Request: fold
Amino acid sequence: MEEVSITVDKAAIGEESSLYAVGNKRRAIPDSSSGRYSNSNGFLNQKQLSDEELVRSFVESQNEESFNEIVNRYGDKIYRLALRITRKPSDAEDVLQEVFITLIGKLDSFHEESKFSTWLHRVAANASFMHLRTEKKKYQNEINLEEYVSYAADGMLQGTEEKDWSDRPDDVLLSKEVMEVIEKAVNELPVAYRVVFHLRDVEGFTNPEVAKVLGLSLTNVKSKIHRSRLFLRDRLSDYFYEWRK
Reply:
């Protein structure tokens, strides 16, 4: 994945603002030099602060370093989520930029009713879906997992042969080719399933957290992650079966 540079530049526009850069795009943000928190050692170490403390620092004092630390912690995660939804690096970078520019004026709406990471991922997911709607992008050939195939009582997909991966050496399982196969399989999932799978099994959110991020019921989340895993198992089993032969 292409690395995306996210920094708060020291270059000034006039004397009252600095540049916030995402990739090669820049936006002006308020200067925070007059509102920095300090302690007995001089300045607060933002890396030691919780997400919620960073938010309060920025909201109350427009502390540039606090905002920059939020960007450093979550820039890659937001990019990955946007890329999983849009499936296009340039679109993901546009979403990334929009999220953090919007965040400058929206952080005061975070009231700690949930974890900051959950709240921010919901902002990012909404921005990603809005981007798709704005660009009028539709994936008309998406698989309908509700009608994919029926499921046997043991949870296996009917009509597929159960295959054993246990004898695959680690260097095969972790090879670049296998990673590409997995990525392709994940991207075949319909976007509603793909984003649930990404949050749950890639980013490590709990089912209730995924439900909060996407505004879904817990039952809906569990159903989507279950069907996603079965679909991916089927796709990857086909690959490893062919490899064995």
Summary: The longest strand covers residues 6-13. Residues 1-41, 163-167 have pLDDT under 50 and may be disordered. The radius of gyration is 21 Å. The chain has two domains: 50-134, 145-244.
